[in-house]
Design brief:
The complex is a heterodimer of chains A (325) and B (278).
Chain A (H helix, E strand, L loop, with lengths): L2 H29 L4 H10 L3 H10 L6 H13 L5 E2 L4 E2 H36 L4 H15 L2 H15 L17 H39 L2 H9 L3 H22 L2 H15 L4 H10 L3 H29 L1 H6 L1
Antiparallel strand pairs in A: 1-2
Helix pairs in contact in A: 1-13, 2-3, 5-6, 5-8, 5-10, 5-11, 5-13, 6-8, 7-8, 7-11, 8-10, 8-11, 9-10, 11-12, 12-13
Chain B lengths: L2 H6 L2 H23 L32 H37 L1 H16 L2 H11 L4 H12 L1 H15 L2 H8 L4 H9 L4 H24 L10 H8 L7 H29 L9
The chains are: A mainly alpha (325), B mainly alpha (278).
Chain lengths: 325, 278
Amino acid sequence: MKTLDFLLQRLAKAILVVLGVVILNFMLIHMAPGDPASVLAGEAGAGDEKFIAQLRAQFGLDQPLYWQLWTYLKGVLTGDLGFSYRNQVPVMTLILDRLPATLLLTGCAFVFSLVLGILLGVIAAYRRGSVADSVVMTSALVFYATPLFWIALMSVLVFSLHLDWLPPFDMESIGANYTGWARVADIAHHLVLPTVTLGLFFTAVYTRLTRASMLEVMALDFVKTARAKGVPKAQVIRRHVLRNAILPVFTFASMQAGQLVGGAVLTETVFAWPGIGRLMFDALLQRDYPVLLGVFLVTAAVVVLVNLIADLLYRFVDPRIEAAS
Amino acid sequence: MTFFKRYARNYGALIGLAILLVVVVLAFAAPLIFPVSPWQSVGDPLLAPSEDPAFPFGTDMLGRDIAAGLAYGARVSLLIGVISTSVAVVIGVSIGALAGFYGGKVDDLLMRFTEFFQTIPAFAMAVVLVAIFSPTIVSITLAIAVVSWPPVARLVRGEFLSLRSREFVQAAIVIGQSGPRIMFTQILPNAISPIIVTASLMVATAILTESSLSFLGLGDRNMMSWGFMIGAARTMLREAWWMSVFPGVAILLTVLAINLIGEGLNDAMNPHLRGRKG
């Protein structure tokens, strides 16, 4: 398949998924118990008759359903995700404000977990059956089973409250007003605990995956041939095994964007990280449904975009894919 | 070799089974061991685990017994874990079976549908579903089921695709058996082992999801759950570590146990794969 065709096909698919989420949101507004207008208003706005009447008119709630869907779709297409009565701002503004913090956190956690996971997986496979292997694999098993929000609380308990090494809340020191590099350092300092917390679960996943994939490749004939030729073991692992074993890990990792967002909701809630996960939690407490649905839509769109980029990158990284299609 | 012998060769799986048995017994016996509701305050507030022998796990800020909460929480976790997984398996098997058996346009359509659910962020969707339909045990169970069926559908589709062309299925078609009958009596029994392995691991994920939801305040208000206990302990982190540590350990052990059992089942049901995962 030509690259352009491939690109267009993937793009169409991505748009369809986002469209699907918009329709899903619309359905949820109408399936929710009670009046759709009160869902659109959120708990805070439901008491304001004028606001409810305005919503009815804006979304054509007395019109037939297909017309309402069309009105809703048109709104979303122009970037209108509704209005947060509680915060007195459009939902889109709220989300765009918070998105960078979440991208920073999830991006760091992703890189952290991928690098550490691959490293540990390689060590475990290279020294299969050793003490190091057992320790790595047992820890992976444990972290794979630990609730993320609990790791977050425990790390606050140990590293912030008891040892006082790292700040437990927020993204920057309040009132410090750092600028330039001092500000970067301050944010990085605040970033450590949330990143590690969010990343550990995924580190466990990637460690197990890398080890399994390495062992599978190590059993193949070309590895034996290389060893028989007299290539040192470390070099075989690096040049022959790792290059082949790492692709399934990358494929899997690129599909984890959605999971990472879910983890971010919990991590940001514990660490009061000012991202859209925290926004979602606040919206939950305040029954601010437009914000809730808006965050859901935007995260889905971001995930679709990440998957799309991963797909395209993949085509360049692994030439076999193009040949196969 | 019998099934259990093969299973028992995996020590981790045996340990997992032992832990899970304890949790199950605790869940069933909760009303017997703790006749008073876990919501009721029964002692002084904020007793540390070592302070009063009557409360080996301490009490929370309202004087509620942490041990009672742990026992009743086990009921919620297991109940939601098992039922939501069962619902997800029914959805996944139905969709996967139809797609794999009929192929063509049906397959295309159902797989696009599955991909859609696999792409969108599962936890965020569960949060939205539970929040909009208000948190009850039914809405939580269904929300978890709705976000967790896609892997089953893909797995079942794959199995059906490969089994469809086997001789015994062809024979059933030739003698005129109906589609649904072939699917349920010929193909499904042959695809059951990987489904059971996947389902057992899904129970673990479902328990994690349930605890995360109730941590965020999206739990059933009438039922004590581990996630809720940790959520309530957040503000008391400095004063009462035991309020958050014990429920967390309970979740960790239960989920770990189920994962170990899943791996043991995998070894026992697919002996030829044994050792591949190391």
